[in-house]
Amino acid sequence: MVSWQWSQGRTPVVDVHQHFWRVGTRGDAEQGVLAADFLPEDLRPELAYGGVDATILVQSVNSPEENDRMLEFADQAGFVAGVVAWVGLDDPTAAGKELARLADQPLVRGARCLVGRDDCAGWRSEAVRDVLAELANLGWCWEVVPVTEEQVDVVTELAAQRPDLTVVVDHLGRPPLGSGSPAEWRSRIRRLAELPNTVVKLSVGVDVLSSWRWNPTELTPCVHHALREFGPGRCMLASNWPVINLACPHRRAWHDLDRAVVDAGLDEAELADVRGGNAVRYYRLST
Fold first, then answer.
1. For a 10 Å CB count at each end of the chain, is N or C smaller?
2. CATH number at residue 84
3. Helix axes 40-50 and 250-263, enclosed angle (nearest 10)
């Protein structure tokens, strides 16, 4: 049961991308600073420091067990307003069964699967389109991190075919921080933003954080480009905790991302939307 609350009369602040895990549940995939337990009690003081009211808890392992773990964590935390579950699109039949299993879970508000740079051409199948149709029927978002031109081709096609489905682009679609072509990234963001049912998370993903030294001066232009293309009504602040610890603590990342949004010249209503109002709307959070 959701127990998070905020003062009436103001828009809540929502961190729309964070994870929890215990060592060993990720197949020992993480090393270094991420090879540890990351639990609700670890994140709670960071949220308080940043004035964050609630979070969206997102899958980090491609398995049904991950969904069960997330729901348990959400119940323990008290500040999780919604869960983005794992629903794999490589096996549409299994995906349909997982959707049916999760359909009566009130905290689930979206679905995604980790794809990296995999070829996603198979997502064009009728069976996958049926899965996305069911997501739309449930009122859930579909989240994805398209980082190649081919992936953007597939995602924009599917988004165009399902205007009733909110498609959430995670982690700024892999901005060119440390490596990559700025022109190619700007083009990908522009193409994704042309679809009115797409929104973007203003956050940084693991592939960037693994090799890039945190630098707000480099990050801010990427945030501004996303704001220009999507507009403040389709952008949401996100930390990507605890993955962000590869580069800096939650409180610094949250401050720098928020500062970049402020420096874009948004008015108070637009700032409130990016900080949490858009999350309430797109994830259909209970207020």
1. N
2. 3.20.20.140
3. 40
